[in-house]
Design goal:
The structure is a homotetramer of 334-residue chains. Chain A has 334 residues and is α+β, with helices and mostly antiparallel strands. Chain A has helices spanning 36-44, 106-113, 129-145, 163-175, 203-212, 225-228, 307-329; strands spanning 3-4, 9-13, 20-26, 63-65, 69-70, 73-74, 79-84, 99-100, 149-157, 182-189, 217-222, 240-242, 248-250, 258-259, 262-263, 268-274, 284-288, 293-296. In chain A, 25% of the residues lie in helices and 23% in strands. The longest helix of chain A has 23 residues, at 307-329. Chains in contact: A-B, A-C, A-D, B-C, B-D, C-D. Chains A and B meet through β1, α2, α5, β11 and α6 of A and β1, α2, α5, β11 and α6 of B.
């Protein structure tokens, strides 16, 4: 259940304030060189305290690889790893354990399991994404050796589109004890044609599931996405062309690099919409387990906007999906 | 690969102009009453020739159930079914087999497998959705017995939003030999709180994958979706409320009935964006397998806009996901 | 649930006296030549009425392939197929529907599902193996093109080991209205070294699961099997040797071609034990649904011994496992 | 790949001389009380240095649970755990890394992955079973709360069947620098009728796969097993009986508690055959990577017979399979 991927599969575990987050990346091909320092740097991109509007909580997030990599190379065995939860504070969780924070998973989690770890959101915390970034970082290095690269960037924060405006929007929201969401665009370059499974496993369906599984994501589109719904067929037709080097491509890329669920060799282009952070730095009225009204007072350190920290998560999820499909492709012929 | 779902799983097969489309719906609980006439009527909603802008090809699409239902009830065994491809015409496919139609899967399919059935798009044809509708229709009847209902409607065709305008838009596009896409909204009512798997199997991630796997879909959002990216946290907060009957709900539903990937008992609300039909009724320039320029002349009977026919497909996919998660939920406690 | 295999996966469906048995073989690589006449002949080996001690019921078992093979080659798409249940007799099943036949699945099935199709055992009938043989026959042809061959033979019938004695044992048991089991040995030749997944997916663990899933099987062993438990380590050591052609092999094959769960290039050798057929041709006392004693009188046509008919089933299961692992192997390196 | 189970699934990781062994037990129902001290005691049963004939290497094997259990109860989230490899010695592995030990996985592993961790057998070491025992111990406690218990015992060591004789057999083999295998019998009591999936997921097929995946296992049988092949149908018929408490059972249990792949409420009985330990305490001739003859001299500390240590592994695997099927059963009806 806590797993994604078919050949290359990642299973993660960990509660926000338990001993550690971690995961197992299974199905990694053998003999791939992995630079653990580079991996640590990638994971560091997700840390708090580095960006305008991100929490000042100091998470060290040191990656400890427990298996599957030896002398700098993958063994083909599962890569187990943990990241300790160093900064968890002991606290009186009695009250919060009885309250349902709005737009959080407290209520739904409790209905589903009849029990929940209330400390820092437990497993519902976005802290679980650290395991995605570790695994995704390994996949990214592997893709890099294949000439496949992944880039992501923030294209909208709240209602703002320009870089300078976006930073100011975060500062303004913070002043009001409020929060912001936004949109991240992600591009995968160098993907060979032929990746993706038709019907239910279309490459963009897999990417959608991967991105929608990131906490706070409320929308996904690829190529021209929702705008495509307003266009005529003749306006979004990607004409084929034979390049001088003999390869086949398309003149435009309304299709976002995927046709019929299979990559066509053009850049894979997608956009992911994040809702605003649900925890406000102001009093918030809600109810407790018995339905009684209560007021939540701001406490702890929280992000105003998570988009900077979400960039490596988006890249990690894209990397896991693309590498998995690269491996699946190998089984399409004898 | 051609499978969706964990406990309730659907595997489909079939090429557009082969002997039959079909599938196996496995994991259906035993003892559920299924009305096969009602199922046939549901499948008929997907047929051609019934709507403005849909192809005039007459597909009978008679569902033949081969197993798993006996004396009107499910046996708990896999439900195998076929729908014959009655109306396939023999034709000279030599030319089309060598050409890559723009925005179709001809090229990507050929790169992936090194071989393809060019007749009517083979398995890349949207005809494969007939198997989804059969299986989804069975899931819908099951959900109905649980008080869970699914509705879908067209909310945009091309750039048009009003019902009268939408029909005219199709007529106009058809005159120009052009095609349209649009947006379908889908609402699931009566879902109990607690369905969906946190982390990678979030309910909306599963729904996204299911909807994005429908041919021509380029975008998915739930709740306030992409608009949420432009809002502040305080603007989209769904306050909890205790209803008079003692149940807990929310005052607003920006979250679209899902929090932390788990249903909260409110309506599940989502929107799905379709690209315009890729086959135009006019000459289209493209290239053949060797990269030589060729012109495709309009032939056959094709949809101008598929949204009417896509409604039962959207409902079917939603039903499969919701029922699967209903069953998974049973395993969350001893 | 009704599925076996990871990359190459078979899902089957069908009740013994329903409209048809069938299945979907998914994950077959594209471009493989399949001879459908040869496939039919392989399926015919499983038919009744051909061997001493097998039922005289005439099952035509004509294989109808519905998808995935075109112009004699696999398309890489799922191969859907059905085999009609032509010879099912209408009958009064009221009594049998209320009785639990000893050593059959009537009782367990009813407890599990709360409902069962009593006609001919429903899905619990060994008739379901016809779908295995169809899919396995396709896998066998594929393996053959890779130089991998599978042989099976009966090595014991009841307590008898010699061919002439075995036939006589069946005749004797039939006279008494009794039945027999036995042991089948299966050898896979030409398997390259390196197939099989360590830990839970060991090649012999997969083979064991596949063989134990065949109706009536009660035991599985590979290499020297149970006899190995009585030996010392020095007695079963397979010494490595470098052959003149430079390949590495072993002098003996106590290990049965598998070491550490991975094939080593030697013949894969296994033995499968079948219990006697549970349906006797004599009065059998049992109880009905309410616990009242009843006597079952012999009716219908049943096998005295199923081993001849089981040979192609054993070969089919072996073929599915080996080909699946051949494909998985492709993903072990980039 | 390194995973077993459908709803309750265990994924393990770890190389014998890497930092740690570990695993993730996913799908555990929420709210189950787990006694971590009892768990540690169960894991201790697998340790070396406690039995006649087992290695004197001191493995502490302290279980560290990283997630999924809080305040003594399961959260419904994945249970991540690690067991550090405390006693690994640094050594010169250059020679051993070039040699293929007979009846070990050195050669097959190298062919499969092109790379292997030679230290102590890497992931091919039976040390991986420590993760099975941790997860299985959690499953055992859960089953215990349901009234389901699992027992295992050694019934044969080498050619010896009596307890006193078995111990002597180990002492004798050790004197000769030789090793022994044997047979373990395992019984599961209190399993409700109705567990197991017909066709490919038969309960005994799942048990077979689980047991055959334990290192050194070469054979599996349930009920009367291989002996059943020599019997007539009338000799192994388990007559149904209605007990005084109204429940239905069978008078005999030749079927081993499973009929048609589904539990019938009687004891589940199975036997598992282990080959002798492959590492001898004497000089062993073999070849190196280039095919040159080499002699392996005895070094390190190794088991003469692993059966005592294998008992908790057998129980653990049985527990994982039974609990998984207990959960699956919940989805058979709405």
């Amino acid at each position: 259940m806590n797993t994604i991927g078919k050949i290359l599969s990642l299973k993660t575990f960990g509660e926000s304030h338990g001993p550690a987050m971690g995961g197992v990346l299974d199905g990694m091909p053998a003999g791939v060189e992995i630079d653990l320092d580079e991996l640590q740097r990638f994971v560091d991109r997700r840390r708090t305290g580095q960006h305008t509007g991100s929490s000042t909580r100091d998470e060290k997030d040191r990656v400890e690889v427990l298996s599957g990599i030896w002398q700098g190379k993958t063994l083909g065995t599962p890569i187990g790893f943990v990241v300790r939860n160093a900064d968890a504070r002991s606290a009186d969780y009695d009250k919060i354990a009885r309250c349902y924070r709005p737009n959080h998973a407290d209520y739904t989690w409790e209905v589903k399991y009849g029990i929940r770890d209330p400390r820092g959101g437990g497993r519902a915390s976005a802290r679980e994404t650290v395991a995605r970034v570790v695994a995704g970082g390994i996949a990214l290095q592997t893709l890099d050796s294949l000439g496949i690269t992944i880039e992501s960037r923030i294209v909208q924060v709240g209602p703002r589109l320009g870089v300078a405006e976006m930073e100011q929007a975060v500062i303004d929201a913070a002043k009001d004890g409020d929060t912001l969401g936004g949109i991240i665009a992600c591009t995968v370059k160098g993907v060979p044609a032929g990746l993706g499974e038709p019907v239910f496993g279309k490459l963009h369906a897999q990417l959608a599931a991967a991105m929608m599984s990131i906490p706070s994501v409320h929308g996904f589109e690829y190529g021209d996405g929702f705008e495509m719904a307003a266009k005529r067929g003749s306006e979004v037709m990607d004409q084929f062309v034979k390049h001088e080097d003999g390869t086949i491509g398309t003149v435009t890329n309304h299709s976002g690099g995927i046709q019929g669920g299979i990559s066509n060799g053009e850049d894979i282009v997608m956009r992911i919409a994040f809702k605003p952070v649900p925890t406000l730095m102001r009093d918030v009225p809600t109810i407790d387990r018995d339905g009684n009204p209560v007021t939540l007072h701001p406490r702890g350190r929280h992000d105003v906007c998570v988009l900077q920290r979400a960039l490596p998560v988006v890249e990690a999820m894209a990397a896991l999906v693309i590498l998995d499909n690269y491996l699946i492709k190998k089984t399409n012929v004898l």
